[in-house]
Amino acid sequence: MQKNTVVAIRVSTIFVFILCMGYLIFAPSWTSAQGAWVEPKGTGSISLSYQNYFVDRHRFAHGEDYVIIKGQRVSDIGTIRFQTVFLDLGYSVTDNLGLSVSFPFVTAKYTAPLNPLIPGFGPHKLADGTIPIDDGRYHGGAQDFTIRLRYKIAARPLVITPFIQYGFPSTSYQFYSHAVIGNRVSEFEIGSYFGRVLDPFLPNFYVSGAYGVAFPQRILGISKIYHKAEFEGGYFLTERTKVFGILVGQVSDGGLEFEQDLSYQGPAPAKWPDFGNPPYDASNELFLHHLQIQRDNYLDISGGMSYSLNDSMGIYGVLIHTITARNVHAKKYGVSFGIGWGFGGSPQRPCHC
Fold it and tell me: 253: burial class by Cβ within 10 Å (0-12, 13-18, 19+)?
């Protein structure tokens, strides 16, 4: 396999249950339609998927895609290409209880601007001056494992399925660089999926959503909580073909802002970074851990299609774009596609629940 073979970032779980092969979105990492409907006891799934997305802008504290360095507005601080392969396993322990695990393998490549004005906005260097992974080549490895339990508590007229999940780094991968494969932070999340088919008012339509609160481990004593929400709408064109659109958003409580005016030389505000002549390199502990502690918010939109090849196998494809973001990389575009195989049980698709 060549070095630039791709396989990259962000935590997602696909629930592909026979005629219900659905959608995989990264971020996060949820699939609300599949999350709301738990398959019958004994039903299992195995799915393999691929993601590729491209970042050409970094969003700062107020959503700006530029920084002000020595009075000059700078937007080009490099580009990043992320690529990921996911292996996802799902199983229905009972008619109401579902268990799933996700194993992602990620690679990423950072391409630096020609003339970065300050070190922190070009390739990231360690304290000894070495560049760990921002060298213009792909670097990757196993990312974070995710384990999720869902339990359906209501089926009609609204499907309600609370969930709990835990994600943890599989290896001690690098978390300081542009081209990191993750933030190397363990996280516990609790929330619920919701869903409803719209028959007989709108035959073959369904809507679903999810809301969750995530509690990442503290880094440098800084507490941060994520609120995550998702809305999905879909339509079955035929018994085997489904189209769908999804909005996914995240808002953080806590964490530190990444202000855009780096030329400020007054007293350091109660925000990160310390603007009193801050070193934007690994010698600044806050900058070293900025990916783990920054207050990152975003809203992504996506759309796609899934198709059931037969009673036990399906495929899907999806496109994604970041609408708005703060303190985080904004995806200019992303594409994901995959294949899933279901076994056991007597699965149903949402339209027939």
Answer: exposed
